[in-house]
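Weekly sync, protein design subgroup
Attendees: M.S., D.O., the rotation student, P.L. (late)

Item 1: inverse folding check
M.S. brought a backbone from last month's batch and wanted to see whether the design step gives back something sensible before we order anything. D.O. pointed out we never logged the input encoding, so this time it goes straight into the notes. Structure tokens as presented (415 positions):
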């Protein structure tokens, strides 16, 4: 008998953010395992998504999409109540009209959704047999002094912990799973709530594999062409794009003159903390060793670039990324591409287990520059090691592995 899965994502509206590819990947893997998948999405979901997925266009409000909109007076403090009510207005009738779902998966949960889901799982006669609430935003903040994450003293964080603890009985019964995708987020949420959180992989579909490094090396064990060091994803301050720009400028001076090609995706300028605007600049735009990608990439174009990338540069700032997943990093380890990455957060965690690379101190342009030189001088060794470790990464981050964990909860509900 076919089992039913409902994916609920209020922010699924267009193709600009990660939600479509993420949900499409999960849908395809779940359907391959015999599940019937439907998606509750934004009211204005674009036709391209409706053609790919079985969509209910429902939500007129989405916290991630509406952040820039003007808020009502005091909404910062009561907004979680208002948004939960808006969710209930949409979800209660939807669940009432559909046969009871075996599973509901909510992939981007915030404090604003918790009360709504607790009420549904407690009172709705058509509540699903199982609910998975998945959190991508961790509650901790990065402490520059200790180089560790801490839970801040915050009224909203206290409310979030209180609301999550309302699920204690449902979690113990096995009807609700609380889940995250980084070990750091798991530690923080469990400290906040004293509830168990499951660790799920971020799914990446099978990618176009680059040739093994040994096939791209000449008999003299030197690269037959200059290696490509790249950073993909829109340039942002939190991604350390300004540091990568400075490092490239230093490496292209006559004193360095290393035979490396650089590729960086820089679609639009961004602001620095001092208010100045950061752009690629004339040197990067005009230099023959630098390629600037100034547009969003289609999936095929992106995979083609990945297949030609020799080293991935990810100098992400821990103040933003210490507990966040980088899909680019996952794709790199799955393809056996060595990385240069920031130490102290999730990047170090995942690359240490599944990949190979050189770690640098948080926000250190000097170490980033030196790491590029070290990687270039020892590229053959790093590339061979990374390529040999890729199979473990491919298995763990496969959509099939996620669906096996997501759709086969450790604790089944008691009927």
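Designed sequence read out in the meeting:
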């Amino acid at each position: 008998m076919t089992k039913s899965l409902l994916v609920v994502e209020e922010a699924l509206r267009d193709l600009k953010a990660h939600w479509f590819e993420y949900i499409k990947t999960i849908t395809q893997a779940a359907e391959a395992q015999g599940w019937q998948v439907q998606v509750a999405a934004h009211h204005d979901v674009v036709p391209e998504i409706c053609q790919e997925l079985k969509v209910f266009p429902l939500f007129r409000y989405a916290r991630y999409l509406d952040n820039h909109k003007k808020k009502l007076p005091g909404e910062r403090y009561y907004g979680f109540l208002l948004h939960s009510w808006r969710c209930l207005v949409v979800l209660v009738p939807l669940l009432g009209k559909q046969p009871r779902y075996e599973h509901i998966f909510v992939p981007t949960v915030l404090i604003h959704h918790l009360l709504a889901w607790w009420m549904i799982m407690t009172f709705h006669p058509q509540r699903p047999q199982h609910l998975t609430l998945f959190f991508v935003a961790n509650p901790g903040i990065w402490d520059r002094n200790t180089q560790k994450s801490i839970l801040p003293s915050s009224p909203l964080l206290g409310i979030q912990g209180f609301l999550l603890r309302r699920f204690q009985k449902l979690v113990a019964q096995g009807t609700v799973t609380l889940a995250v995708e980084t070990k750091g987020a798991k530690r923080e949420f469990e400290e906040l709530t004293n509830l168990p959180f499951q660790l799920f992989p971020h799914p990446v579909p099978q990618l176009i594999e680059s040739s093994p490094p040994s096939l791209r090396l000449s008999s003299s064990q030197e690269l037959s062409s200059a290696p490509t060091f790249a950073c993909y994803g829109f340039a942002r301050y939190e991604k350390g794009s300004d540091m990568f720009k400075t490092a490239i400028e230093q490496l292209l001076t006559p004193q360095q003159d290393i035979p490396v090609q650089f590729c960086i995706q820089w679609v639009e300028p961004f602001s620095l903390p001092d208010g100045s605007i950061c752009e690629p600049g004339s040197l990067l735009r005009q230099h023959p060793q630098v390629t600037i990608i100034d547009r969003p990439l289609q999936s095929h174009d992106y995979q083609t670039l990945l297949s030609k990338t020799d080293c991935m540069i990810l100098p992400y700032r821990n103040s933003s990324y210490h507990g966040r997943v980088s899909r680019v990093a996952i794709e790199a380890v799955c393809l056996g591409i060595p990385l240069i990455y920031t130490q102290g957060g999730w990047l170090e965690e995942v690359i240490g287990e599944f990949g190979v690379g050189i770690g640098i101190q948080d926000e250190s342009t000097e170490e980033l520059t030196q790491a590029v030189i070290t990687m270039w001088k020892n590229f053959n060794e790093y590339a061979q090691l990374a390529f040999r470790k890729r199979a473990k990464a491919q298995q763990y981050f496969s959509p099939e592995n996620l669906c096996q964990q997501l759709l086969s909860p450790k604790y089944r509900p008691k009927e």
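Discussion: The CA atoms of residues 333 and 355 lie 5 Å apart. The chain has 16 helices and 17 strands.
Action: P.L. to compare against the previous round before Friday.
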